[in-house]
Structure formats: C-alpha cells, structure tokens
Design a protein that fits this description.
With 640 residues, this protein is an alpha/beta fold. It has 2 domains: 277 residues, 4-Layer Sandwich (Nitrilase/N-carbamoyl-D-aminoacid amidohydrolase), CATH 3.60.110; 323 residues, HUPs (Rossmann fold, 3-Layer(aba) Sandwich), CATH 3.40.50.620. Helices cover 39% and strands 18% of the residues. The chain contains 19 helices and 20 strands. β4 and β5 form a beta hairpin. It is elongated, with a radius of gyration of 31 Å.
Length: 640
C-alpha cells in the first residue's frame, strides 16, 4: 500500500446451486488464496453463497438460513486474514428479501449493501423474489451482529485515506444513472460490482466497454466479479467474466471462461491525482452517506501490473501507427492555421540532419500540401559550423532534395568566429559561450531570412528538451511556431520512423532511416575523426528515462520516490538502480532550474496529455525551489 498501491482481487469460485455449505467452503478457500497473494480486497460474485440461479428456492427458509450460516463462517474465517472481503447473499430485512453485498473484515460483518436496480425483463425475473434496497441506511441485526444496511455506505481504510470502497450489484451498472456515480461523488475511489451476467453473443465485448467506460467516467478503480461455471444451465450460461479496470484501462480480465482469481494493483495516488486535476470532477463529502471504517496493515505491494518504459508511445504496432498519423495531423493543422492566418507564403526551417529538424520539416511539408502551396515555399537552411559532420550535412541535403523544397546552405563558421573575437572569447575555449554563440547565430540567420522572404520560422525543439532546458536561450529555444513543442523525444523517433515506413520514395526512406541511426547531438563541439563528438544523452542522460520521469511527474504529480520505484520496475534489466537515480536527480535539478526558458515559449500545438506551454498546461514560477523533491530523493539514495 506504499505509494498508493493496493492489491485487489476478483474471484469466481466453483459453486453448487443452493449448496451453501459447499459454496461457503469455496469462498473461504478463495479468501485464503487472495490473502496469500497479499490482496487487501477480494470481491466475489452476486449471490455467491447460494448461487444466482436458485429461482423460487430464494423463498425457502432453509436456503436463507444456510446463507446466513455461511456468512457467519466467512466472518469467522476473515479474523485470520488482513483482507476486506465482499460476498453476495440473499438477506431478509423487515420481511422483505434483498440481494446484498456483504462487507466482511477481521471476523466481523461491517455492513450490507442491497441491490438498487432489480431487473425483470428478458431472461431476468428478480422482482419475483427481491426488493429494491433503501437509499438511507438503517441498522439491522444480521447473523447476530448489528450492522448498517443500505445503498449509501462507504467503507474507508483508516490507514490509507484514499482507499474508500463502495458497492453496486450487476444491473446497477447497466442503468441510466448507476449508483456508482453517487458513490464516486461521495468519495469512493474503488467500486466493487458483484455480478451474475449471463453469456449471450456480443455481450462480453459490450460488458468490457461498459466497465472500462464507467471506471474512466468516475475516475476510479472498478472490480467486476462475475458468476461462472457451477450456476444452473437450465436456460443460461455464466462464464465468470471478471474484470478489474482503473480509469479506463483494463488491468486484469478473465479470458478463458474458467473460474479463477484475478489479481492486480490499483494506483490510488493516480486516481486521486486525476480527480484533483479535473476541476469539473464533481466530488463532495455527502451527508447522505454513512462511512464504515476498517483497518489494514500498510505494506509495500509487489507490482504485477504493466508499466510501459515508453509511456508516450503505444506498444501495439497498429495502435502506434494510428497514433502517429493522428499526431502528425494535429501538428500539420496547427501550422497550417498559423501560416494561413498571417498570410505567409514561405516557411523557414533550419535543417541539421537530426531527428527534431527532420520531423519539423516533414510536418511543414505536410502543412504546405494541405494549404495547396508549392513546396518551394518551404526554405530549408543548413548552416554548417565547427561541429557539423559529413553524415548529418549530407542527410540534411538529401532530405531537402527528396522533399523538393528550396535548399539554402549558409555556413556560419566565419560569422561565429568574428563574433567570438568581438566579445574577446578564446575560440579554443569550448565552453557554453562557444556552443551558444553558434546556436544563436543560426537562429539569427533563420529569423532574418524569414523577414526577407515574408515567411515564418518553424521551430524544431521538442518536449523533452524543454523539460530539461536543453536549448540555448533565444537560440534554438526561439521560433515563430514550434511544431514539436509537445512531442517527447521518444515519440519523435517513432514519428520519423512512421514517415520512413510509409513513404514510397526510396531515397527519402533511406535518408530517414539513417537519421534515425544518428546519435542525438546539437553538434556544437568540433567533430572527432569526422564523427559526432558531442552526444546529448552522454551529458543529460537517456531520453527514454527522462521521458518516463516527465510523464509520471507531470501527468500524476507522483513523488520522486514513487517515480524511482516505477522506473526500476519498468526498466528492470536495462538500467541499474544507481543509474536510474542519478538521472532522476539530474531531471529534477534541470526541470526546476530551467523553467525560465519555458516561461517564454513560442506558440505550438498541444498533441498529448503532457505539455509545458505557459499558456496552457504548465504555469510554474521560474524561481520555484526543488528542496521538497530533493529531500524525497535523498531517502531513495539511502536504499540504493
């Protein structure tokens, strides 16, 4: 439960219809298995103590007595487990029969949540036996215990305030306004659904989308435990379609149609972060709800859920291609609008032969094509200087020629040399002044050329560089429209590869593949034996790590120690703990110290959920102190 993780399980046990003794034994066996997995919450199907398909047997006293006896045994068994268990059974209250979810913990029954929506159509005829549960909780005596009974119950963990559980039962989810909506408004972060949803053609896919959508809409964790094999097949078949979803993502799901246990972890920090971020999320402490507290042991949950090492890039090939085309379209449409608005007929872009300028050029050409403007209006400028290598120079020329744009070569070596002499800087001193003089000269050339041709300068810098401040202030930091400003470096690579894979031009394809193989470098230091001597990732660290850090810090506001833990998990076998911690420390230092560059960024389109525009997603004072984040990291150093 450290870092907001809580391990949860959905269980479909074997059962026999109306055999409460056997079913109780199977439920207890499932509880023990969940406890062994260190689960803190286990959810069983609707009416799991009796079976859902008992029909008119629900009106028989022996079955109802057997259900209560089974519940008592489940309570007794729970005393030896650190597990909140939710099971289904029929319960009589004030001479009416209710379909209930029973919450059990530490040897006690904590409360009963009755079903709200009683279906009585098609294959369902629950209204023949059951009554809609009361909206206002009352205390009733069940199995010798006085407990709250009603649909307005929340079960809150005292040791983990963000762990708040509420229940709905099967049909409750399928109606216009599910009870879970009210539960989430009242503060529930985890919704459990005890279900008995039969299998008919097409229903499985619909059920899956329904649960995904509800978890996204409510920004919650959702555990759906479905009745399975063992129910009567007189007219229906049940296949135990258990699903665990978190904010629109399926974390675990039964795919085999076999009874079993499905376990994963909810990230409650993530859920709470999303709710804080969404100012339209309607949540308030409701006086209409009764909160039942429970206690649990706080411990570190072993992670089993997937965390992608490249969170900005889909792993699935088809999904990645679709995403690439979507992003390229957004970038091109943004630039198209700007060009059209200022009535420009030309665009000027510096082409280095590297990834960022390549993507920016491809986007610019796409925008010109959309506008119906001749590609000659795109002016690509290569500006060789001290660090330019033959490889990048030739790739820049090849790229521009293949795309049939206007090619300009403007060497800046002489201009930079004169400038360094004018400011009395030793040309053999290859410090930051030496590097930045080249970057600023390139920007000056592009800006003045754009003025001369009545065009605009298209920026090439990407999101990762902005996060790290890896840009020369008023050099490559500045442009008239930054098309790559919200594209992280790991995604830039895949976008360029997408262009390479899709083109029919062999020369363009080969050039793009070579650009992809070229080390990332600003080429501001002299080459060594004709090869790139200045490799960005040797200086600031691997971009795949920094993009991972950036995503989890910006998207969810995680503590540095949690990001460190996730990075160790996601990059296991690729980077050791010391390396990850080293570059995480670098990331935070650079992110905080370089905010002043982000405070005056040029316009550019937002394409994803993480962006750093000072006019959009990120407003941060340039003088913010990193001390709190640094202190949290120091605790990681002690365990590294």
């Amino acid at each position: 439960m450290k870092h907001g993780f809580v391990k949860v399980s959905a269980v479909t046990p074997d059962l026999r219809v109306a055999d409460t003794i056997y079913n109780t034994e199977q439920i207890i066996t499932g509880m023990k298995a969940c406890a062994a997995k260190k689960s803190k919450l286990a959810v069983f199907p609707e009416l799991s103590i009796t079976g859902y398909t008992c029909g008119d047997l629900f009106l028989q006293q022996p079955l109802l007595n057997g259900a209560l006896e089974g519940l008592a045994k489940i309570c007794e068994a729970s005393a030896k487990m650190d597990l909140l268990t939710v099971v289904g059974l029929p319960v009589v209250v004030n001479h009416k029969l209710y379909n209930c979810a029973a919450f059990v913990k530490d040897g006690s029954l904590l409360g009963l949540v009755p079903k709200t929506c009683i279906p009585n159509y098609s294959e369902f005829y629950e209204a023949r036996h059951f009554t809609t549960g009361p909206k206002v909780a009352e205390f009733v005596e069940i199995a010798g215990m006085n407990v709250p009974f009603g649909t307005n119950l929340l079960f809150a963990c005292m040791e983990m305030p963000e762990f708040v559980v509420a229940a709905e039962i099967c049909e409750d989810l399928w109606v216009i306004t599910p009870p879970s909506a009210s539960h989430a408004k009242a503060g529930a972060t985890v919704i459990v659904n005890l279900s008995a949803s039969d299998e008919v053609s097409g229903k499985r896919a619909y059920r899956r989308e329904l649960i995904k959508g509800q978890s996204a809409r409510l920004v919650c964790g959702y555990i759906y435990s479905d009745a399975g094999e063992g129910e009567s097949t007189t007219d229906l078949v049940f296949a135990g379609h258990d699903i665990i979803a978190e904010n629109g993502t399926i974390l675990a799901e039964s795919l085999t149609r076999e009874n079993g246990i499905y376990t994963t972890e909810f990230d409650l920090d993530k859920i709470c972060s999303e709710r804080r971020r969404m100012t339209t999320y309607e949540q308030c402490e409701s006086m209409d709800y009764v909160t039942v507290n429970f206690s649990t042991t706080v411990e570190e949950a072993t992670l089993t859920r997937h965390y992608a090492s490249t969170p900005f890039v889909p792993k699935n090939d088809a999904e990645r291609s679709e995403r690439c085309e979507e992003i390229i379209g957004i970038q091109a449409l943004g630039l198209k609008k700007r060009i059209k608005h200022i009535n420009a007929k030309t665009a000027v872009i510096g082409i280095s032969g590297g990834l960022d300028s390549t993507l920016a050029l491809l986007i610019t050409v796409r925008a010109f094509d959309l506008l119906g403007l001749p590609r000659e209006g795109v002016i690509g400028v290569t500006m060789p200087c001290y660090g330019t290598t033959d490889r990048t120079y030739n790739n820049a020329l090849s790229l521009m020629r293949a795309l049939k744009i206007t090619v300009k070569e403007i060497p800046i070596r002489d201009a930079v040399t004169v400038h360094l002499r004018d400011i009395e800087h030793d040309i053999d001193n290859h410090n930051v002044t030496y590097e930045n003089a080249q970057a600023r000269e390139r920007t000056q050339v592009l800006m003045d050329l754009a003025n001369d041709v009545n065009g605009l300068v298209v920026g090439t810098g990407d999101l990762s560089e902005l996060a790290l401040g890896w840009a020369t202030y008023n050099g490559d930091h500045m442009s008239m429209y930054g098309v790559n400003g919200s594209i992280p470096k790991t995604l830039v690579r895949y976008l360029v590869k997408y262009f390479a894979d899709e083109t029919n031009d062999e020369i363009l394809r080969n050039t793009l593949y070579d650009v992809l193989d070229t080390p990332v470098s600003p080429e501001l230091l002299p080459a060594e034996d004709g090869k790139i001597s200045q490799k960005t990732e040797d200086i600031v660290g691997p971009y795949e790590l920094h993009d991972f850090f950036l995503y989890h810090m910006m998207r969810f506001g995680y503590m540095p120690s949690k990001i460190y833990r996730l990075a160790k998990y996601a990059f296991a076998g690729e980077y050791d703990d010391v390396t990850i911690l080293k570059w995480l420390r670098t990331f935070y230092w650079r992110f905080f110290s370089q905010q002043f560059k982000r405070s005056c960024l040029p316009d550019g389109p937002k394409v994803g959920s993480v962006a750093l525009s000072p006019r959009g997603d990120w407003r941060m004072p340039s003088d913010a102190c990193v001390a709190l984040w640094k202190n949290d990291l120091e605790a990681c150093e002690e365990t590294c």
